[in-house]
Design goal:
This protein is α/β, with parallel strands linked by helices and 251 residues long. Helix content is 22%, strand content 29%. The strands form 3 sheets. Strands 1, 2, 3, 4, 5, 11, 12, 13 and 14 form a 9-stranded mixed β-sheet that branches. Strands 6-10-9 form a 3-stranded antiparallel β-sheet. A two-stranded antiparallel ribbon has the order 7-8. It comes from Streptomyces africanus. It is an enzyme of class 2 (transferase).
Length: 251
């Protein structure tokens, strides 16, 4: 039951080239930077990543992206990541952009054993009708476009069929975790981390504070340990390393 590993390299030692990864985080919040750094150090490449975004400010998944280690991204947001946009438009990267709420539910559904579900998000758009550019040819044309999806009517309204997502591995970051893998997430870091953790067949969690089993109130657990295979305790310095993407202050 003790799922704690000694180092980040040990935690990701069996992640192979070409693996699919669900990665938690929202912007710069709740990103498993230490585990991502270990993947970079190991030289793992050809990764298919499922995450809300692909890193920013040269942190998070942006580290792997800039090194050419990511082959495909399923996400919702490119934002100010200029290298992400460059690789996508140059045809170096395959990108499936989907509505953010749909991404969240696809991860949750995959983790809950639900193969597919119907949602109104995307009906009447290229999300349902197909034709969204997944990969450009580097010359302004589309090399691979999204396929059309099944649309079905329920009670007079149309809904599009979306598939649940399962990945080989998941990397997440929690504010607190115990040796059994029970996790607690802090504030906005709770947006995608629990869902990514559910979707991974092997889920690895880096935790800012490691506690003993029983020290977390069962009612306070956001993700039960049944979903988590390995736990990495961060050093105080690693836990405190939290960057801010948009700093705003009040007068």
């Amino acid at each position: 039951m003790d799922k704690v590993v000694a180092t980040a390299l040990e935690a990701v030692a069996d992640v192979p080239d070409g693996a699919s990864l669900a990665v938690g985080g929202f912007g710069l919040s709740g990103v498993p930077n230490v585990l991502i750094g270990a993947l970079y150090e190991r030289g793992v490449a050809g990764l298919s990543v499922v995450s809300n975004n692909c890193g920013a400010m040269e942190t998070g998944l942006a580290v792997l992206l800039a090194a050419g280690r990511i082959a495909r991204v399923t996400g919702s947001y490119i934002g100010a990541n200029k290298e992400f946009a460059r690789q996508y438009l140059a045809g170096e990267l395959e990108v499936e952009l989907i509505p953010q709420g749909t991404l969240a539910e696809r991860l949750r559904a995959g983790g809950a054993g639900i193969p597919a579900f119907y949602t109104p998000a995307g009906v009447g758009t290229q999300v349902a009708e197909g034709g969204l550019p997944w990969r450009y040819d580097g010359q302004g044309g589309v090399a691979i476009a999204s396929p059309a999806k099944e649309v079905r009517e329920f009670d007079g309204a149309e809904y599009v069929l979306e598939r649940g997502i399962r990945t080989d591995f998941a990397l997440v970051r929690a504010a607190k975790g115990d040796r059994h893998g029970n996790l607690v997430f802090g504030k906005s870091a709770r947006n995608f981390n629990p869902l990514a953790a559910m979707a991974g067949r092997v889920t690895i969690a880096e935790v800012e504070e490691l506690v003993e089993p029983g020290e977390i109130d069962p009612d306070a657990v956001h993700l039960p340990g049944i979903f988590v295979r390995r736990v990495l305790a961060l050093t105080p310095e690693q836990a405190a390393d939290k960057k801010i993407e948009q700093r705003t202050v009040r007068s």
